Amino acid sequence: MGMRLQVDGIKGVVVEILEWDPRLDTSVPFMDTEHRQMYEIYSELARAVTARASQSVLYQLLFKLTTHAEQHFRNEAQQMVISGYPGHDAHVARHQVLLKEVADLTFQYGDNAIDLSARVLDYLRCWLSDHITTADREFATWIKASEV
Ligand SMILES: [Fe+2]
Ligand SMILES: [Fe+2]
Q1: Residue 3 belongs to what H/E stretch?
Q2: 84-94 pLDDT, tens digit each
Q3: How far is the CA of 119 from the centre of ligand 1 (A)?
């Protein structure tokens, strides 16, 4: 669905411009809005990586991406508490797995912005669509049921 881009000198890493796919819609407005924003920031970083943007631009975009993810995770968790979602703990644990992975990658590759960005993008590419179509969709079904 996206466009694959080659990053010189980094083997085994896929950097891709991710286009929004309607199959990712959950029909919960705040989730869809924030997921779309996540895809936009993701693609912004992917373009910057392939254009070999400066370290400061890359670190800024990485920061924007992780900050957005953390805020989005907090918003979802808050709605889970409000709606009494029984899957809260398991869902939050899945968010933690992503944040832990980004922290580990930062520890490993933090001194090289291109390398770090490419690896974060590669990991997030599968994590995002997988998470949205499974865990987030399950929660969305719960919210919608509790609204009626
Ligand atoms: Fe989400
Ligand atoms: Fe989530």
Answers
A1: strand 3-5
A2: 999 999 999 99
A3: 20
